[in-house]
């Protein structure tokens, strides 16, 4: 088993006033040659958006983009005609493919919004752009890891053009479990949204992350009630 620890305080940081963001990997003006990606996981940004503010219309292509609101509501608009609001308890996915233009704004004028912005390098380029969102409340399982993303359109959850699986858990203190990898030559990037856990023998707390690869499985123990996100991706892209 190989692991890499990324503590919360080792992340890049930028505060633009309207946007306060932490970068797990090199992005925008933050550059760290040791943190370009974790396999197919290219971006993990922890964004806080001021009331009524957001990202104006901008382009993406050939990237799988996953947004997970943690607080508040984001209003999405794109050039495919989609207009939607994503809230805490939902997951949004976009396959940018041949090209997409979109904007995202904090829907609330009086409260900040928080969300995770995740980019996955696709297995197939130049696909037809697409948009989808789901409520995880429909698939959430108490004190258990539940799948929110896969490569299979027929699975529960959202899907992307990559051999990737995301699992989320709202886990109680003293939970013990094991994660078994879905694919060969894959890694898991475990990100602690809240709480304190022990993963593969490493203690992690709020916004810490651990990359794990070259193993078939690893153990998870919860020390304090935790909100956990596990992102399994190919390590070779």
Give the helix/strand layout.
Blueprint: E1 2-6, E2 12-15, E3 19-23, E4 41-49, E5 54-60, E6 64-71, E7 73-78, E8 83-87, E9 90-95, E10 100-106, E11 113-120, E12 130-135, E13 145-150, E14 158-159, E15 165-171, E16 176-180, E17 186-199, E18 202-204, E19 209-213, E20 217-234
Parallel strand pairs: 13-14
Antiparallel strand pairs: 1-19, 2-3, 3-4, 4-11, 5-10, 6-9, 6-11, 7-8, 7-10, 9-12, 13-15, 15-20, 16-20, 17-18, 17-19, 17-20
State the major sheet. Answer: 9 strands, mixed
Number of domains: 2
CATH domain class name of the largest domain: Mainly Beta
Distance between the termini: 20 Å
Q: Name the helicity range.
A: under 10%
What's the name of the CATH homologous superfamily of the largest domain?
Jelly Rolls
**Whole-number mean pLDDT:** 96
The general outline is globular
Sheet-strand content, in percent, reads: over 45%
Relevant terms:
237 residues, mainly beta, Jelly Rolls, 2 domains, 9-stranded mixed sheet, 7-stranded antiparallel sheet, 20 strands, globular
Describe this structure in words.
The protein has about 240 residues and is mainly β. It folds into two domains: about 10-135, Jelly Rolls (Sandwich); about 140-235, Jelly Rolls, CATH 2.60.120.10. It contains no helices and 20 strands. It has strands at about 1-5, 10-15, 20-25, 40-50, 55-60, 65-70, 75-80, 85, 90-95, 100-105, 115-120, 130-135, 145-150, 160, 165-170, 175-180, 185-200, 200-205, 210-215, 215-235. The strands form three sheets. Strands 1, 13, 14, 15, 16, 17, 18, 19 and 20 form a nine-stranded mixed beta sheet that branches. Strands 2-3-4-11-6-9-12 form a seven-stranded antiparallel beta sheet, with no helix packed on it. A four-stranded antiparallel beta sheet has the order 5-10-7-8, with no helix packed on it. It is globular, with a radius of gyration of 17 Å.
């Amino acid at each position: 088993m190989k692991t890499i620890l990324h503590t919360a305080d080792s992340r890049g940081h930028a505060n633009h006033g309207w946007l306060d963001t932490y970068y797990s990997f090199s992005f925008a003006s933050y550059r760290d040659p040791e943190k370009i990606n974790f396999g197919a996981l290219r971006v993990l940004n922890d964004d806080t958006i001021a009331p009524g503010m957001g990202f104006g219309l901008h382009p993406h292509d050939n990237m799988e983009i996953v947004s997970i609101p943690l607080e508040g509501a984001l209003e999405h608009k794109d050039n495919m005609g989609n207009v939607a609001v994503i809230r805490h308890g939902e997951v949004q996915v976009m396959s940018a493919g041949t090209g997409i233009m979109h904007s995202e704004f904090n829907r609330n004028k009086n409260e900040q919004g928080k969300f995770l912005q995740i980019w996955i390098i696709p297995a197939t380029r130049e696909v037809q752009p697409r948009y989808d969102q789901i409520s995880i409340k429909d698939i959430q399982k108490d004190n258990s890891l539940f799948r929110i993303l896969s490569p299979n359109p027929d699975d529960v959850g959202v899907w992307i053009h990559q051999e990737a699986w995301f699992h989320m858990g709202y886990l109680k203190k003293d939970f013990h479990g094991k994660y078994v990898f879905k694919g060969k030559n894959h890694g898991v990037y475990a990100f602690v949204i809240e709480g304190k856990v022990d993963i593969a023998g490493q203690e992690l707390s709020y916004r810490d992350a651990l990359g794990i690869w070259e193993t078939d499985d690893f153990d998870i123990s919860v020390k304090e009630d935790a909100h956990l996100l596990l992102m399994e991706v190919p390590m070779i892209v």
